[in-house]
């Protein structure tokens, strides 16, 4: 029997329980590529899964962890060979397919993206699913036609994972970025990432008017609920908001006014089932459009056992930037 350490979630009578245990390699699920996992990340969804605060996991036992970067150990898929460096985000990993908080993962080759040439596996997971989602959101705004000349853009949850990468990427692309945060003490951190103005989260957390003063050409939202509703009602004529999260809530108490009176567009961003072509594009863009020094400034590394301590904190909005998890 070959075993390795993994964070395994089991279902019991009182709910789910996560523990660091020895996992038998023979119990890995089907897949045509086995990867030696080097780094994973702690994303908001990982926090939900490990604490059991939301029903993210839909198969038990489950190895937690929705993303990894590592080296192909064996492959019967012609696209991959031993030694290839790869990245995986989503596709149900850590939800329906055994996940990333383990020394090994067996997955479908078609889920994998090549590690960008100038990135280390640690860089890739410092970016992780949150950073790749931020890039998908930026790409949606670009497809809409937004450019730095369109006017300032806003990012909510700016001190969190998606938000901090979105601020860094948008500022590198030349946008004027307004960063919304509930942690005004992080103003210097956010300015260091490229934000030119800091907006107190409280300004966007009350009930939204159908239309409010036009402030931004576009935005990236991780919060949902009244935050997204306010962003929509403050978006300039013809602008767009890319929505990817629910840190404030699943609801969206808005009206059709921004859409029918200002032609505002709302783009939905999903990282889990995103088609492979767009994933590859996002990872290529992250190679060039995210300053590595800024990435280093927003990254904290933890070990696998430390996931248990940090998981509840990410749900409380207490984590700054990105958490990379060293697996081996
Ligand atoms: P983080 O916890 O790192 O960041 C979330 C941030 O949201 C917090 O740091 C905080 O930032 C802000 N926030 C927290 N509570 C509230 C609130 N009540 N109102 C407004 N803002 C709040 O999480 P991630 O960045 O990893 O993920 C952010 C969201 O995006 C999550 O909901 C996650 O599920 C979602 N997500 C979705 C994906 C997709 O495929 N659609 C992929 C990845 C993430 P601050 O202190 O600066 O205000």
List keywords for this structure.
328 residues; binds NADPH dihydro-nicotinamide-adenine-dinucleotide phosphate; alpha/beta; 6-stranded parallel β-sheet; 7-stranded mixed β-sheet; Rossmann fold; Quinone Oxidoreductase, Chain A, domain 1
What does this structure look like?
With 328 residues, the protein is α/β, with parallel strands linked by helices. The protein folds into 2 domains: 3-115 and 298-326, Quinone Oxidoreductase, Chain A, domain 1; 129-268, 3-Layer(aba) Sandwich (Rossmann fold). 29% of the residues lie in helices and 29% in strands. It contains 9 helices and 16 strands. The chain has helices at 44-51, 121-144, 161-172, 187-193, 225-233, 257-262, 276-289, 292-297, 307-315, and strands at residues 3-12, 15-24, 33-42, 62-63, 67-75, 85-89, 104-107, 113-114, 153-155, 177-181, 195-200, 216-221, 235-243, 265-268, 299-303, 322-326. The strands form 3 sheets. Strands 3, 5, 6, 7, 8, 15 and 16 form a 7-stranded mixed β-sheet that branches. Strands 11-10-9-12-13-14 form a 6-stranded parallel β-sheet, sandwiched between helices. It has a 3-stranded antiparallel β-sheet with strand order 2-1-4. Helix 1 (44-51) packs across helix 9 (307-315). Bound molecules: NADPH dihydro-nicotinamide-adenine-dinucleotide phosphate (NDP). NADPH dihydro-nicotinamide-adenine-dinucleotide phosphate binds next to helix 1, helix 2 and helix 3. The site of NADPH dihydro-nicotinamide-adenine-dinucleotide phosphate has 34 residues, from helix 1, helix 2 and helix 3.
């Amino acid at each position: 029997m070959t075993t390795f350490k993994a964070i395994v979630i089991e279902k019991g009578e009182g709910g789910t329980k996560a523990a660091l245990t020895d996992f038998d390699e023979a119990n890995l699920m089907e897949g045509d590529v086995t990867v030696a996992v080097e780094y994973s990340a702690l994303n908001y969804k990982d926090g939900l899964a490990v604490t059991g605060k939301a029903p993210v996991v839909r198969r038990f036992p489950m190895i937690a962890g929705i993303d990894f970067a590592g080296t192909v150990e064996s492959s019967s898929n012609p696209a991959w060979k031993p030694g290839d460096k790869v990245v995986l985000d989503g596709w149900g990993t850590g939800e329906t397919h055994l996940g990333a908080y383990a020394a090994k993962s067996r997955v479908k080759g078609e889920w994998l993206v090549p590690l960008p040439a100038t990135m280390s596996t640690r860089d890739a997971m410092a970016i992780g699913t949150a950073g790749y989602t931020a890039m998908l959101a930026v790409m949606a705004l670009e497809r809409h036609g937004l450019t730095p000349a369109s006017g300032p853009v806003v990012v909510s949850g700016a001190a969190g994972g998606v938000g901090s990468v979105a601020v860094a990427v948008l500022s590198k692309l030349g946008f004027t970025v307004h960063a919304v945060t509930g942690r005004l003490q992080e103003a210097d951190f956010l300015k260091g990432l490229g934000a030119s103005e800091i907006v107190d989260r409280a300004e966007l957390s009350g009930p939204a008017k159908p239309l409010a003063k036009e402030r931004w050409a576009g935005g990236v939202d991780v919060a949902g609920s009244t935050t997204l509703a306010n962003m929509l009602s403050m978006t300039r004529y013809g602008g767009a908001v890319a929505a990817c999260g629910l840190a404030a809530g699943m609801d969206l108490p808005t009206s059709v006014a921004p859409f029918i009176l200002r032609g505002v567009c709302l783009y939905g961003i999903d990282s889990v089932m995103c088609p492979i072509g767009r994933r590859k594009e996002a990872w290529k863009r992250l190679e060039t459009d995210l300053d590595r020094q800024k990435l280093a400034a927003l990254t904290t590394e933890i070990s696998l056992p430390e996931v248990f301590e940090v998981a509840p904190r990410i749900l409380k909005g207490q984590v700054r930037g990105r958490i990379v998890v060293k697996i081996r």
